[in-house]
Amino acid sequence: VRERKGSFFTPRQWVELSQQYIADVLGENWQEEYYVWDCAAGTGNLLNGLTNKYNIWASTLDPQDVQVMKDRIANGANLLESHVFQFDFLNDEFDKLPAGLQEIINDPEKRRKLVVYINPPYAEAGNKRTVTNTGQNKTDVAVQNATYSRYFNQIGIAGRELYAQFIIRIYNELQNCFLAQFSTLKIVQASNFSIFRQHFRAKLEKFFLVPADTFDNVKGQFPIGFFIWDLTPQETIFEKAIGDVYDRNSKYLQQKTVGIPIKFLSINDWIIATRGRYNEQVIGYMASYGIDFQHNNYNFIVNSKKQLPFPRGTVVTDQNLLQIGIYYAVRHCIAATWLNDGDLFHAPRDGWQTDTEFQTNCLAFTLFHGKNNIQSQYGTNHWIPFTEAEVNARDRFESHFMTDFMAGKLVPQEDTSTGSLFQAQSFVPSEPLVFSPEATAVFDAGRELWRYYHAQPNANPNASYYDIRAHFQGRNDKGKMNAKSDDPEYMRLWGELKEAMEVLRQRIVPKVYEYGFLIA
How confident is the model at residue 114 (pLDDT cuts 50, 70, 90)? Predict the structure, then answer.
């Protein structure tokens, strides 16, 4: 039930740290000078450590939780029983609040001394299973309450998140107080919170980030932040701020910038502009659902859009292959972690257009990366990066597209852009591509792997990199490719290719930040 409602216990270590941060903002004596209301109190553990029980109020949706808090008071919890009450924050009107709390929120001077201190529910209307059509949206979680209906125009699709509903009501109806809240980072950096941020004109005073799986019943690898906001309306819209990062043992790690430009253009906005070129030759399809690290598993290359369980992506053609390679390499050259889980990939700044080494490094990375899922069983394989002679193939390849492309043998098409956000420049090479030493090492290692495959009995001349791996590694009972092979020579050659790929990856990473695909 708690998981369905999105309510999870706040770990004691983060309770203590959050109260230290509040003291940093409001002063060491803040508990004597300010009132505290936890309007999503659950069983009240967020209030542990607070000392002035006469200034503390706690409300919760479930009457059972109210009883738990009262039982805790009987056993020494530092709360007043008269300040603990049942209240449906997303539906009930404030005239149902205890008289003492109403006096505070109705007096502008006292309300300025109010700290709404909460770890609100994180339940949302959708999850990862809805992306692949294996689950249903929990629409009843988000929309069946008065706050959502009242402030729909101010939150848009951010209203699918229950905590966004808590925050928008607090901002509108308890204006000028302070809000100290735990939540995911969507409030400060999700693109689908843009409408919310236009209306939530608060000042972020201070924040810290911690691993989400340190919270009760949370298994995901993403950050949860504690944010302290001054809700006095600001003229400007929030764009970015710098906060502190702690590991699961409360050890300080680093600082991190969070935020999103008001006029944000994503990496998907950029790659979409490469679609629909004149007289293009289609060689595949790149799935590209989402624009952050948590969706990188949904970024891969296949033969056809028909293979996908979801419709998001871009056709790969001779006209945009180099841009596709850049997109793909940018998304996969940096590992996803709990801390960067929600970081957004931006449309690039200028400079990459003339950086031919960056372009070709990304192409090499894309050709030999494990999520290039081109398979010959689904159609002609245009992604063979070698000639027949180079790998001693047993027969002629059906397509020489990739080697012809890299040799500059294809004819570039004229620019047919029609006023899109990005110039539809052609990047079809008219002369042989020149590869860096790091990319050349990848090709050399790959060539040895291809040769070994083509020496096998019944080798498929048109095999892709995916096909070669599947041949040697086989599949388990569930049809998933095994992680390794029993063939020691294959494992050696594959290992050398992966080592070369790691060197190439390290070469690409600095360019990701230099050209603004990610913000450091």
Answer: very high
